[in-house]
Design brief:
Blueprint: H1 12-15, H2 19-26, E1 30-34, E2 40-51, E3 78-83, E4 87-93, E5 102-110, H3 119-122, H4 136-142, E6 160-163, H5 167-174, E7 180-183, E8 197-200
Antiparallel strand pairs: 1-2, 1-6, 2-5, 2-8, 3-4, 4-5, 7-8
This protein binds a DNA duplex (12 and 12 nucleotides) through residues 49, 51, 57-59, 62, 65-67, 81-87, 89, 91, 104, 106, 135-138, 141, 185-189, 207.
Length: 209
DNA sequence: TACGGGATCTGT
DNA sequence: CAGATCCCGTAA
């Protein structure tokens, strides 16, 4: 099949490095959710956080458990967990096997080329479309990401995959448009001073500012 | 087996 | 700023 767009799909190898490098590089990339019927919802990543070995806020800090097992595997898989009994969080596993690290995807700018949203999103009442995926729990809700996707490989044809920044976006980024901000992470009780959160300063979809 | 708290979000 | 709501990790 000749598909020039497939060259933009991000490989596991590209994720096989420190979450501290991967997290800022994921900003501007596109997360694609595809359902079995072929329906797609796409969004540009505008906010991420890194979680590292030796980081007390990292779920893998105290070693491997049933929940965090996928973080200890190879990069390019997704780690999805339930938080506060009702929300899910999506992580991209980074680094090499046995080095448990990941990047939390905190917010997306949803692609809404046609003015009307897919039916997947219309169930959300009174939400401004630009805020529908503004937060780690919200983006999982709108993309219907739950623990059934835990351990899934990010790859075209799977429920989730990643695509590289478009050349046009990268060019604007290099020109200083899309300024990137680095700050401390959100909602933590440990590791609160580590500046491992990145977001697009001007994006209306960032969870908090 | 029991218990306390969590990488959140919403409505008051 | 409290409540929803479930699972996980730790201790017993």
């Amino acid at each position: 099949m000749h598909d020039s767009a497939s060259t933009a799909v991000i490989s596991s190898d590209w994720c096989s490095r420190s979450s501290l490098e991967l997290a800022p590089d994921l900003i501007g990339c596109t997360l694609v959710r595809q359902w079995p019927d072929g329906t797609q919802v796409r969004g540009v990543i505008v906010e991420t956080e890194a979680y590292e070995p030796g980081d007390p806020a990292c779920h893998a800090y105290r070693g491997m458990t049933e929940r965090n097992r996928v973080m200890f595997g190879p990069a390019g898989f997704v780690y999805v967990y339930l938080i506060y009994g009702m929300y899910h969080c999506l992580n991209i596993v980074s680094d090499y096997p046995n080095i448990a690290s990941a990047v939390l995807i905190r917010a997306l700018e949803l692609e809404t080329t046609p003015p009307q949203l897919p039916s997947k999103m219309t169930g959300n009442k009174n939400q401004s479309p630009t805020r529908l995926a503004a937060g780690p729990g919200k983006l999982c809700r709108v993309l219907e990401i739950d623990r059934s996707l835990n351990g899934t490989l990010l790859q075209q044809g799977q429920p989730l995959w990643l695509e590289q920044r478009t050349p046009a976006w990268q060019q604007q980024f290099d020109q200083g448009l899309h300024p990137l901000t680095q700050t401390t992470r959100i909602g933590l009780t440990q590791g609160v001073d580590l500046p491992w959160r990145w977001y697009l300063r001007d994006s209306q979809a960032v969870s908090k500012r």
